[in-house]
User: Fold this.
Amino acid sequence: MKPASAGRLSKRLRKRLIHARIEIDQEEWAQMTTMADVALRAKVSVSTVSHVINGTRKVADATRADVLGAIQELGYTPNTIARSLATASTRSIGLAISAISNPYFTNLVHVIEAKLSELGYMLLLAEPHEDAGRELQVVRGLHERRVDGMLIAPGAESRQHALRYLAEHDLPTVLVDRLAWDHFDQVGSENEKPTADLVNHLAKLGHRRIGMISGLHGLSTTDERIAGYRLGLANAGLPFEPELLESGASEGDTAHAAVIHMWAGKRPPSALIVANNQMTIGAMRALRDLGLAVPSDVALVAFDDFEWSDLFHPRLTTMAQPVSLMGAEAVRLLLARIETPDRPPRTIRLSPTFMHRDSCGCNSQHGQRLNPTATSGAGRTEPTRRPVPRR
Assistant:
């Protein structure tokens, strides 16, 4: 039977039902409406209606408006399940990402969802909670829901579990933020050099004992930032001292405890690098609890920027990751992989931006290390230099 005939039949059926005074509620009416009905009302072909709904071909703006108007007028609801069976596509993407409460990952999820929505895809989000078994369960569950592809920020043991599952089932996948296996497309920030740059910045200000609070053991970002910390020390001619490297496990409370433990040592650092923004909050609380002022008692810099970094006192010096670009690139890579499954995998590294503010002890405009303000003989308040304490 031709689609147009199906449309006329459904119209006649509705007329008979109405004539027979059979009540049809709005939901039932929408379910009875077909794509052919929409095509008849908009005076276009069924294929044109399909292109408008699925975004599979460019349609003239006026025609698109006619189709959308007919859809709204008739209350037509596309049958997503039937369409996915016919096209082998659900227009849905899975995202497995832990630490969603971390502002950095929250922003990343927002960017990815907005970009996918713009392109006609729905995002299915699940949090593995940095647990390898849970991550595998999440990935398998999303796969069973027939997502077209997967975005994942892999955990510490992903390669042995979730990533192996994805590779074995040949599901289009892109690794985001944490670059764990070049078997897949992956996009994330440079970590080693930017962390070394933070060390170098502090060393140029005269700091000789520079501590670091690192992230969760086993994450690629943790390993790369520790490598950058050690590289920065070597470049500055400073020794690596194990007691100045503590794990904050990528969590605020653990970072708080790590800072307390570091300052319990005989020679605590004069400057501190914190490897993500969640841990920065915990580190700042610990320094406050220890009665230490930033930056006069200890200089503080961090990886990851906050939307509210300028509101802290002092304003935080950070290394800001390009979250918007990372999310957009992840979506672009995944859709390209879905379109061309056999293309060689790509790894994209994005450069963070050094946000030079005040917590490092500098005047952010001139890079000068400052003492707390002092009053000059003329009664004017102005900054004065002082040497960094040797520890």
